[in-house]
Specification:
The protein has 583 residues and is α+β, with helices and mostly antiparallel strands. The chain has 6 helices and 28 strands. The radius of gyration is 57 Å and the shape is elongated. The two termini are 100 Å apart.
């Protein structure tokens, strides 16, 4: 290979010599027998052969095109060495090899070196590459196998653990099923006896109330007849000229007995005045007039435990909340300010109410007591322990002189606050009395019970007037519209019913099952109901159309909901310990 990258076989130098004349040349003999005719025949034969080959090529071109083929020929020894030296850029060694190779070619032939190099080297290289590749693949498979083995061992351990856990759960399930069957069997044995006793108790209570009413009527008649007889005897004796009898003492004694029987303690006024809501236009809640309804605007963390109830202050933009943490709190919810906190109950507080003066608060608790608190003094001023079971709810009489309470002992009681004693016990329910409320500007007290009934009482006589029956589950709450024409109630299966107080009939029924409805309230116009549901939502019900929208935000069951500020806002409390304001 020269500097100009030109390859040559042998480097030969031509020298001028006088011996060229003596050089021997091989003579080519001329064949004189060849004639021109034979040459012409050979030319014609060649032309025919060429034409025939052209036709064959055209036929083959029309048919299937031949596939290209390559033939691998092994390298000879010298070419192998040259390619090796060129591959590794060993030019000087290549020059030396070329020179020595062709010099030796002049003296002897290298036919014995023209052997082809077998493919064993290439095959060995291919096999080494394959071995290297398979080794890498083996390493990968080994790692994957180790990982799968570890995973298998782990899954086998988990399987054994879950199998043991499943066996334990099956045993517990079987045990619980046996206990349930035993309890059901035990309950079935007692159920007829309990039903009979319950029926007898209800019958006895009705007879007792009728007997009491009859006794009161008879006592009144006796007192009237006695007074008439005394007056008649006095007139007769005076007309006969007899000595004047001390009728004044008799009359005073008779009047005193009558007064003690008909009215013991503070007198309940018969007329509380007209309802002012009858003669004015009541505003409709903002939820019905605002596009999109009400939205949550405030959230207050009120207590450490669940908020079980609330009531609104009649004269201030405030509310009172009671909780399972045995405390009550007075809040200015507009400014999220805590005004007052009360402690004194030894168990959860179930209900509360503020009197119409806004000076006193009443609370009922699971410790069976009813307490009256003075806001100015910030302490308890009265404690009533007449109930034998937890007290669920309390309500002030419109005059503020009397306080009603509902208890789990199946009774409601009316307390005379000035006298500091229980005035009358209302007995008509066969199960726990869950809530109660006075009809606005009247002496009618409504109670609802777990016996699925609503009873309206005249607190002056302590006798039930109307009984509303229609619910199929325990009733949790009741409320009246502003004009006092209808009462609404809700039960433990989410059913809400609206009743006509004049005719004591059911007007409508709405079903929000299966979640219990804990509380229900009217807006001022009576067009919208707010139902506090145990699923953490407030159902806003349009009474006329039955359309329902939901307010979502609480993390647990909503225990109470009340409209404030003429229906522009809605305040709700929940078992998640919070107060929410919707506007």
């Amino acid at each position: 290979m020269t500097e100009d990258n030109i390859y040559y076989i042998e480097d030969v130098t031509v020298e001028d010599s006088d011996d060229d004349a003596e050089a021997l040349f091989e003579e080519v003999k001329y064949d004189e027998d060849i004639s021109d005719s034979e040459a012409e025949e050979d030319l014609e034969t060649a032309m025919r052969t060429l034409a025939l080959s052209t036709k064959v090529e055209e036929v083959l071109a029309v048919g299937e095109q031949p596939k290209a083929r390559t033939t691998h020929r092994p390298e000879v020894v010298d070419d192998f060495i040259r390619n090796f030296l060129i591959r590794y850029n060993m030019t000087r060694t290549l020059h030396s090899f070329q020179r020595e190779w062709y010099e030796s070619e002049q003296f002897h032939s290298h036919d014995n070196c023209s052997e082809r190099i077998p493919d064993c080297y290439a095959q060995n290289e291919d096999l080494e590459n394959k071995v290297r590749f398979l080794g890498n693949e083996l390493d990968k498979v080994t790692k994957a196998l180790n990982k799968a083995s570890a995973q298998y061992i782990k899954m086998r351990k988990e399987r054994n653990f879950h199998r043991l856990h499943h066996r334990r759960l099956v045993q517990e399930k079987d045990k619980l099923l046996n206990d349930v069957k035993r309890i059901k069997k035990h309950y079935k044995d007692y159920e007829p006896a309990m039903e009979g006793l319950r029926t007898k108790y209800e019958t006895a209570m009705r007879e007792k109330m009728l007997t009491k009413l009859e006794c009161e009527k008879n006592n009144t008649k006796i007192a009237t007849l006695t007074s008439t007889l005394n007056n008649y005897e006095t007139v007769k004796m005076s007309s006969n000229g007899n000595e004047h009898l001390p009728k004044t003492d008799v009359q005073e004694d008779t009047g005193r007995d009558e007064d003690q029987h008909l009215s013991t303690g503070t007198k309940i006024p018969a007329d509380l005045g007209p309802n002012p809501n009858l003669n004015r236009e009541l505003p409709v809640t903002l939820h019905l007039t605002k596009s999109g309804g009400l939205h949550n605007t405030q959230t207050i963390k009120a207590h450490e435990l669940a908020v079980s109830g609330m009531c609104l202050h009649p004269h201030r933009n405030a509310l009172v909340t009671v909780s399972d943490d045995m405390t009550w709190k007075l809040w200015n919810f507009a400014e999220e300010e805590l005004l007052l906190t009360g402690r004194g109950h030894t168990l959860w507080i179930g209900g509360c109410d503020v009197d119409r003066t806004g000076q006193h608060l009443a609370t009922g608790s699971g410790d069976t007591t009813v307490r009256v608190w003075d806001f100015q003094e910030g302490e308890c001023v009265s404690v009533f322990r007449d109930h034998s079971h937890p007290v669920w709810d309390v309500a002030w009489h419109p005059t503020g002189q009397f306080l009603a309470s509902a208890s789990m002992d199946n009774t409601a009681k009316l307390f005379d606050i000035p006298v500091q004693k229980c005035r009358v016990t209302l007995r008509a329910h066969a199960d726990s009395v869950n809530a109660l409320r006075f009809l606005p500007y009247s002496n009618v007290l409504g109670t609802c019970s777990a016996d699925k009934s609503v009873v309206l009482w005249d607190v002056r006589t302590g006798l039930p007037g109307q009984t509303l029956i229609g619910h199929t589950n325990a009733i949790n709450s009741l409320n009246y519209n502003a004009i006092g024409s209808t009462v609404v109630s809700c039960d433990a299966y989410g059913v809400v019913k609206v009743w006509d107080l004049r005719q004591a009939t059911e007007l409508a029924s709405y079903d929000f099952e299966p979640h219990p409805a804990n509380h229900v309230s009217y807006d001022l116009s009576g067009c919208c109901l707010a139902v506090a549901s145990n699923d953490g939502r407030v159902k806003m019900l349009e009474v006329e159309t039955g359309k329902v929208t939901e307010l979502q935000g609480h993390g647990d069951g909503v225990t109470a909901a009340e409209f404030v500020e003429n229906g522009e806002k809605l305040v709700t409390v929940s078992a998640d310990s919070t107060i929410k304001v919707w506007s």
